[in-house]
Amino acid sequence: MIHIHKYEKWWIGLTILMLVAFATLVGVAAFSKGFQVPEPWMRVDPNTVKDSGAFSDANLGLHELAPGKYEAYLLAQSSPWRFYPSELSIPVGSTVTFYVTSVDVQHGFRIQDTNINLQILPGQVSKATYTFEKAGEFPYVCGEYCGVGHQGMFGKIVVK
Length: 160
Known about the structure:
17% helix; five-stranded mixed β-sheet; elongated; alpha+beta; 2 domains; Immunoglobulin-like; 11 strands; six-stranded mixed β-sheet
């Protein structure tokens, strides 16, 4: 039988305790705090995504589905570096499902003071839902470096 020193047993025990604590915290965050794992909702052809359908120029922006329920279609693009549209306005208490895609390079979509933080890849539509419980401005920015104009990729959600 192998002899393990008592200090080594303590470190092994502490490591196991920390793993259990971290796993518990991740479980609590995932199930009781509403954290969402970003997932590609559907695939699109980045070369033709702007031509027709949900991400055409005429369809970008906010669409009311029912009272207090909205869908927002956003397009990230470099050269010029920006989000289309760059501003959305909704009433307090509204639930918005965001559909975001890119036509060229990898981008990010992060909304301040929310748990929305998506990785946007060309050819994939990322989807996330959030309920805006308080009034104010919620800026959104590109969270992935996407080129020399990256600092210009921002917008805002105005909750009234």
